Structure formats: C-alpha cells, structure tokens
Automatic annotation (TrEMBL):
A GO cellular component entry from the record: cytoplasm
UniProt-recorded Gene Ontology molecular function terms: ATP binding; metal ion binding; NAD binding; NAD+ kinase activity
Obligatory cofactor(s): a divalent metal cation
Broad class of where this protein is predominantly found: cytoplasm
Lineage, opening ranks: Bacteria, Bacillati, Actinomycetota, Actinomycetes, Streptosporangiales
UniProt-listed NCBIfam families: PRK03372.1
Residues at the catalytic site: D71
EC number annotated for this UniProt entry: 2.7.1.23
GO biological process per UniProt: NAD+ metabolic process; NADP+ biosynthetic process
Record field: catalytic activity: NAD(+) + ATP = ADP + NADP(+) + H(+)
Cellular compartments annotated: Cytoplasm
Designated gene of the protein: nadK
The family this protein is said to belong to: Belongs to the NAD kinase family.
PANTHER family: NAD KINASE
Name assigned to this protein: NAD kinase
Length: 298
C-alpha cells in the first residue's frame, strides 16, 4: 500500500520553502508519496508531488501531516484533519510555537521519524460551539478557544455567563474566552487564565478585562456546558474560534460550549514533560533548582 504524507507550509515564513523541499526529498527517497496544498505548491516548487485543494480530502488516507510554520499554521492543519483523524506534527518556524513538536534544526529527525513511523500520537480535547439566535442555530468548533468579543471599542460588552443551565454572573467586559487545556497557553493565557497541563480534562472560562467583583478565571468540568449570552443592551458581538472562524452575534445571541467527541490528534517525537516545554518556550528561570527531593530512608 502506498504511503502518503501531507506537507503544509507557511511559505511566507523564512526558511519554510527550503524546509519543505528538504522534507519532500527525504520522504520521496524513502518511497513515500508527498502531498502539498495547491496554494503552496508554486512557492515550494518541487516536482513529483501530488497537489490537493485546501480541503479535508487532502488529509484523507495520509498517515501524517507535517506542518512548517507557527501555531496558526498548525491550527489550519487541525481544521483539515478534523474528521479524518490524521495526526499533525508541527515544526516551529514562528515565535513561541507552543503547539509545535520540533524546531527547524530538528528537520532531519522529523524526516527520519516520519519514514520509520517512530512517533507517538496524543489526543487533545477540542470543544464544540453552538450559536443560537432568533430560532436559528450555527455549529462550529475549536482546538484552542472560543472567544466572545465586543464590536464597539468604546463600550463594554454586557454578558451573562452560565454553567450547566444555571446563571453564574453578569459581566461588563471586553469579552470572555472559553478554552481547552491546549488553549490555556494561548488567548486564555494572555487574558490572565491559568496554565493547564494537556492531560487534565477541563474547560476554562476566562473573562477579558471584566468590570465586576467576581470575575476570576474558572476551571469547570469537561462534562459541563458553558453558556454565554449577549444581552439585548449591546450593539452586537463576534465569536472567534481559534482566531480562524467567526460568527456575528447580534443582541440576544447565546453561545454554548461543550467538550467535543472528536479530539485533535498530534504526533509527538520527544514526549517531553510539559513542565520542560513551559520552561523552554517561555524562557523561565530555573537557576537554583536542586533536583528531585529524595525520600529519607527510615
């Protein structure tokens, strides 16, 4: 059976094209069929590859998607693999690149592991998002977060937030972020939310600059449903999912967020402890650490 790997590249990033070309050569030499997206094929400029439209069909039947870029490019890949289940392996060519598994210097290792299938696949929780307004319903999803944000810069957005069918609080705020553990280091982190280890099953609710006495970040059960209602006193709002998909929210809209039955599958090379990833990605100071405390023998 012919093996196939899709390579996605943010061709505007420095080094993305040469990195893609290197991977294509290594995979092709190993007899693996390489796919690229039509919008990127001209920039990459390699012959012998199979071109696909930027649609989920590009990932169907592929054993792996290798992403060259930042977290935004990986989120784009996650959108394409949403229902095919193809694992995504990110190579960071951006800034922090928290979702990426490897750096540009690791390209040879990435190629070797892809050829030998030496990687683990980790499932990350996603969220389903339902927008209800005037009797209509719109469904979407997110890997990182769903954020309800104000449209008018000079006015606060008036929101009522509820958990599991019960009202929690009314917030005048710039918005609210509903995030997964994966998204805890993205928008929710910037809004003051907690960092949550990926294996923790939970959802986060993080208000953005709320004018309220009770406006702390919340960690709720993964089986809960979070509801955000845009009150009629607003001019409207907008829903952003992973910074990629938007839905307009007129006054009276209701956004419901719950755990998705469909996880996102990420390929892992190193299985680096999450603590080490935090230290590396954020440059955290660890001088003075004396190592693991040993239990005193009795």
């Amino acid at each position: 059976m012919t093996r196939s790997v899709l390579i996605m590249a943010h061709t505007g990033r420095p080094g993305a094209v040469t990195s893609a070309q290197l991977l294509i050569r290594r995979l092709a030499d190993a007899g693996i069929n390489v796919r690229v997206l039509e919008g990127e094929a001209k920039d990459i400029g390699c012959s012998g590859v199979e071109e696909f439209p930027a649609e989920p069909a590009a990932t169907a039947g592929a054993e792996l998607v290798i992403v060259l870029g930042g977290d935004g490019t990986l989120l784009r890949a996650a959108e394409l693999t949403r229902h095919t289940g193809t694992p995504v392996l990110g190579v960071n060519l951006g800034h922090v690149g928290f979702l990426a598994e490897a750096e540009r210097a690791d390209l040879a290792v990435v190629a070797s592991r892809a050829v030998s299938r030496e990687y683990e696949v980790e499932e990350r929780m996603a969220i389903d998002v339902t927008v209800r307004v005037d009797g209509s319903e719109h469904k979407t999803w997110a890997l990182n977060e769903a954020s309800v944000e104000k449209l008018a810069r000079e006015k606060l957005l008036q929101l009522v937030v509820g958990i599991d069918g019960r009202p929690l609080s009314h917030w005048g705020a710039d918005g609210v972020v509903c995030a997964t553990p994966t998204g805890s280091t993205a928008y929710a982190f910037s809004a003051g939310g907690p960092v949550v280890w990926p294996e923790v099953e939970a959802m986060l609710v993080v208000p953005i600059s709320a004018h309220a006495l009770f406006a702390r970040p919340l960690v709720v059960s993964p089986s809960s449903t979070v509801a955000v209602e845009v009150t009629h006193e607003n001019e409207g709002a907008v829903l952003w999912c992973d910074g990629r998909r938007t839905v307009d929210l007129p006054p009276g809209s209701r956004v419901e967020v719950r755990r998705s039955d469909v996880p996102v599958r990420l390929a892992r090379l190193h299985l680096t402890p999450f603590t080490d990833r935090l230290v590396t990605k954020f440059g955290l100071p660890v001088a003075g650490w004396r190592g693991r405390v040993r239990t005193q023998e009795r």
